[in-house]
Specification:
Order of helices and strands of chain B: HHEEHHHHHHHH
Number of domains of chain B: 1
Radius of gyration of chain A: 24 Å
Radius of gyration of chain B: 19 Å
CATH architecture of the largest domain in chain A: 3-Layer(aba) Sandwich
Structural class of chain B: mainly alpha
Strand order of the largest sheet of chain A: 6-7-8-3-9-10
Strand content of chain A: 25-35%
Largest interface: A-B, 34 and 29 residues
CATH class of the largest domain in chain A: Alpha Beta
Shape of chain A: elongated
Strand order of the largest sheet of chain B: 1-2
Number of helices of chain A: 10
Distance between the termini of chain B: 25 Å
Oligomer: heterodimer
Distance between the termini of chain A: 19 Å
CATH topology of the largest domain in chain A: Rossmann fold
Helix content of chain B: over 70%
Number of helices of chain B: 10
Number of strands of chain A: 14
Shape of chain B: elongated
Order of helices and strands of chain A: EEEHEEEHHHEHEHEEHEHEEHEH
Largest sheet of chain B: 2 strands, antiparallel
Amino acid sequence: MSVPVLELQGLTKSYAKLTALSDVNLSIRQGEIFALLGPNGAGKTTLIGAICGLVKKTSGRILLFGKDLDEDPVGPRYEVGLVPQEINFDPFFTVAESLHIQLGYYGRPRDEARVDEVLTALNLQGKKDSLTRALSGGMKRRLLIAKALVHRPRLVFLDEPTAGVDVELRRDLWSYVRKLASEGTTIVLTTHYLEEAEELADRVGVINEGRLLLVEDKASVMRRFGERRLIVTFEQPPPALPEPAQRFNATLSEDRRTLTYVEREGTPPSGELLRELYAQGLPISDVETRRSRLEDVLIEILRGRPQKAA
Amino acid sequence: MNTLGMKTLFAKEVRRFMRVPGQTVLSPLISTTLYFIVFGYSISSRVKEVGGVPYLSFIVPGLIFLGIANNAFLNSSSSLFITKIQGTLVDLLVAPLGPGELLAGFIGGAMVRGLVVGVLTWAVAALFTGFNLQHAGVTAFFLLLSSYVFSLLGLLAAMWAEKFEQINFFPTFVMMPLTFLGGVFYSVRELPSPWSQISLFNPMVYMVEGLRYGMLGQSSFSPALGGGILLGLALVATGLALVALRAGYKLKS
């Protein structure tokens, strides 16, 4: 098995009155998109900061590309890129200069072609020679992303990359992230937009109060924690809860016009109930199904529904 | 060793101050030139010579030292402090730049600014006094080492400071009094007691006198004294800065 791109072993960060990270163990595979989810103050940014050299860990080990950062704190960072949560820019330089400087920091010579490529990918080509302070908020965020990618890192951290950007850019960015991952770049992202994690991630991790509560394939999380609601509306309210509905533990609304069935892992599929209702010739006027979103799943997990070990 | 990373940071530091030359080079040049004209002409009408050297020539080394020390300090302190405040420090901390590379990049840039101001001050002064250079090696030693030491002190101050007020503390309350009382405009040997004795505790005195020896060929103290103090400071400050950078003192949470 290939060496994990990133491995955390018992990573802990304590401040005077707060444990920001508590015994975090995590292994990230080459080429995957991993979404780290959790409420504000859960430890997401601290976790990324500890890996990227912004936060001093209290204990534990961090291995980047198989190398222990305690033994070599600098070497593995040639292959890492970070899009920080807070927008920052150096007002003295143009967009292109900022990217050339970034290339230099990573030990790479000036590369006009690469700078043009990244600027085009992030729709910043027209602003190449503008001073960074003249950019709009959304453009500054694109520049942050360009800076994190220009040196072709193998592992990219995106800490709330689309906070405060418009829908169009968010979609553009998602397709770019997918493209990077398909080319073998490993992506670790934190986000408040669960839609983002749902759209992009192969695996998700849920963190709260510094503890990693769960690490699992997104599809499996959705299957285990997700629900499908079948909502059936009747033309005429039936006199009582129809028999198959009782067997399925479905519920009838007070006015007896709407029947709701919650399908979870291990319960019979909604289609089966629907077939039986039709077979009984009940006057059905509308059928609707609602799948829970990752957001609902996250709330379930944070509320403490049973979890599988990470 | 990330040589290219270090060179990039150095070049960025130089370009940063060259983007605003009016503020970073011209402004200090004008103030030191004004010192030269005002102090020089007003006092030289009464004090013709100090230790056998015309008064105008006497104050030139001190003014050059003042320009170097202030500008080297201001460059590294403001650059690192602004980097901390505006958040671009993240770029440096994430990048594969070790303490040595960070130190060399910041210090190199600050030294260039200090030396540019110092050399330009010298050139302006030469228009009034003629060009004096008695011991080129000693002069070069003091120019380079004082710019190095004050760049380092600026870097340490910026690491320590968390507020703008704190970053202004050193130039206003430490460097300005010490340099002005450091024998730039007078010889501390000629001060009345006890000021003459008190002045001996001011390390700037020996640095100014060392440069004076290099340029004018005479001084009140052996240049070895000033050189020794600068070397000692350079060693201590380098060690401190490397340890602080490695530990991420006030840079990492």
